[in-house]
Amino acid sequence: MAVLSIRLFPDPVLRKRSKPVDSKSQKTQETQGFIKDLTETLYKQPGGIGIAAPQVGEAQRVIVVDVSPRDPSKRREVMINPRILRQEGEVLSREGCMSLPDYTANIKRFARVLVQWLDQKGVRQQRWAEGIEAICLQHEVDHLNGVLFIDRVASLKTDVFPRKKKK
Amino acid sequence: MQRVALTFIGKDRAGIIARVSRALFEAGCNIEDTTMTILEGEFAMIMIASLPHFQAEKKLKGAFERLKKEWGIHPFWRPLPGKGVRGEKHPAGTQTYVVSVVGKDRTGIVYETSRILAGAGLNITDLNSKVLGEGKKSVFAMVLEADIPQRFNLKKLEPALKKLKNRLKVDVSIRPLERLSL
Description:
heterodimer, A: alpha+beta, five-stranded antiparallel beta sheet, two-stranded antiparallel ribbon, 7 strands, globular, disordered C terminus, B: alpha+beta, four-stranded antiparallel beta sheet
């Protein structure tokens, strides 16, 4: 087990589209070991609740999400090849990213997402996620597609008072 | 390397930022941190930039003087000591809270609200206010963010905020802002 170093922007791996983990390599020791390292790396980040493989330099479709420090009803999920199948609602929150430190921005996300993935044992899972978990999932799946949260900034204004339209 | 804080205020029009940044670029300066907005038609920008050498100062001040003369954009110049802090820094062990105050427009809302926070030693990190609507029906709305230490008991603010609500007839809400580290 090892804590991996976080890749920072402008590392090109953060802009790559990650490759799916094929069924052969899913259960290999190498993949399982990597997932352990990725998880350990997540827990070493202060306040960290999600991590995607490209953030440690691996362009593979693997994410680890654990929002339990913020939402105790949730538990850790290791997601291989996650796909967001459906999405609904809207929610605004202030996101920050370990790969782009010291910057936070208001991002609009879907409030609920239906996500399908393979768990660590290779079993297909599917369920709806909401709240912080839904935000986190969308942020991490974005990483697998080379998208950073700064690409999705909703508005520099807090959006509480829309600017008046000119008459 | 000298760092300066700059502000520019004047009637808004297209091209102000291009002129300011061109002057900085041609003097070899590096723009570090900027916020710009429009307040009731007034262009307002604050900026921190670093200068490569002292000759840059003269060049820049000349360019800003022309901007003032030609377009009425007033510059302000303040040299900064030391290296500065990059990025957004919230003191460890604090949680960001959003405070919203809305009510019929009248004087003293900003003062009374900020006085309560200042009295508790709480630091405001962002503030936005607007008058909505016209005349007698106009409404004042303010949203601010403050860093509140986790060990601070928010209940301590309640009596003062309640008084504020009653006296100024405003709605006050205070809620934590989710800062998600992903």
